[in-house]
Each structure stands twice: as structure tokens, then as C-alpha cells.
Amino acid sequence: MSLEIINENEEKVSVKIKGVPLQYANALRRICLNGVPIYAVESVDMLENSSVLADEGVAHRVGLIPLKTDLESSKADNENDKIMLTLDSGISDETRTILSGDLKSQDSNVVPTSDDIPIVTLAPGQSIKFEAHARLGKGTEHAKWNSANIVTLTESDKDDERILTVESTGALNPKHIILSSVEQLASKLSEFKTTISEIK
């Protein structure tokens, strides 16, 4: 088995995979899409909301905002720890659009991947205030924890060679997604081998 990076940038990476059966390569593709843990908002405690959007609508939008995930630098001690993000719009005499950049995170390493994602529009005199709680999760639980937007596996001219392309949501570096997925696949295969040997 061999992996060779043929194209890479901050958002997307393409890797040439050689000597790997199609079943394993496809398993790797699935893990890249929804098997690598990232942070996403799980719950929102609404403290104040005078906008036209219901509390549930605001919570849904905030939950789908992708968050940068840096497990090495994060303040979370384990996977069950939660990171709190807060937003307090205050009151203004002007119409405003509240954006993801208005969220304040208690962990500078867990922040929205973009500051320009709209959350809600406030008319003059309206305000919104809430606390959002983010935790690690996998896309197998909910799509908001998908580490990648698109993962494709394409055939090449050679029978034992395929191209795996991963486009990240921005939460993780795309190369990190592939490396983490390879480790997970190897671990699962090792566990399966151990289970089979115990049956004998």
C-alpha cells in the first residue's frame, strides 16, 4: 500500500492510493466523510431573542456553523468536554445581520471557520443573546459533525490505483482527515482480526 499526494491546498487534497483493494479504499472514503471527530454546536441556551426567527431556528443555524477543530491545542481535556460560545448582539437603532464572527468562544482554537456566515437579521430595537455548547462528534451521528463536504474515490488507468479527493469543511486540514481516517481504518481492521481469532 502507498499514498502519494498529487494535489493539495488548505481546503482540498487529492491522494493517489496504490495496492489497496476497492473495499478498503471505499471504507477509507466513508471514514473521511463522517468518521473523523470534529467540534459542532450541540445545544443552544437562548437568553434573549426578540428577532422574527424562532429560538429553534436560531439554534439550528448556529448548529450548522462549522467550527475549527484543533485537538492538540484545544482546552478540552477529553471528548466529553464542551466548549461554550456566546453571542450578545446588544440593541441598535439600525438593521443588522448577526454573523458567525459575532460568536465569542471560550477556546480560541474552537471558532467558526468563517466570520461571514449569517445567523439572523435584526430590525432596529431587536436583540439576541445566547450561549452555545459545542462538543466533539462524528458525522455518523449528525451531518453537522461531518469533517468533509465532499469525498470522492475515482478510478485511474491502472487496476490497483485510485484517486481519493477530500474537500474539508474547514474544521480540519484535509490531509489530517486522511491520516486520521487511515489510523481509524487500521485500528478497526486490527480489532476485527482479533475478534475473528477469538472465535477460532
From TrEMBL:
One BP annotation, GO: DNA-templated transcription
Top-level taxonomic group: Archaea
Keyword Nucleotidyltransferase: yes
E.C. code: 2.7.7.6
Keyword Nucleotide-binding assigned: no
Keywords, in A-Z order: Cytoplasm, DNA-directed RNA polymerase, Nucleotidyltransferase, Transcription, Transferase
SUPFAM superfamilies reported in the protein's UniProt record: Insert subdomain of RNA polymerase alpha subunit, RBP11-like subunits of RNA polymerase
Main location: cytoplasm
Chain ranges of the DNA-directed RNA polymerase RpoA/D/Rpb3-type domain: 12-195
Gene Ontology MF annotations: DNA binding; DNA-directed RNA polymerase activity; protein dimerization activity
Signal sequence region: none
Pfam families for the chain: RNA_pol_A_bac, RNA_pol_L
Catalytic function, reaction form: RNA(n) + a ribonucleoside 5'-triphosphate = RNA(n+1) + diphosphate
Gene3D superfamilies hit by this protein: DNA-directed RNA polymerase, insert domain, RNA polymerase, RBP11-like subunit
Assigned GO CC terms: cytoplasm; DNA-directed RNA polymerase complex
Location(s), subcellular: Cytoplasm
Role of this protein: DNA-dependent RNA polymerase (RNAP) catalyzes the transcription of DNA into RNA using the four ribonucleoside triphosphates as substrates.
Protein family (similarity comment): Belongs to the archaeal Rpo3/eukaryotic RPB3 RNA polymerase subunit family.
Quaternary structure annotation from Swiss-Prot or TrEMBL: Part of the RNA polymerase complex.
Protein name per Swiss-Prot or TrEMBL: DNA-directed RNA polymerase subunit Rpo3
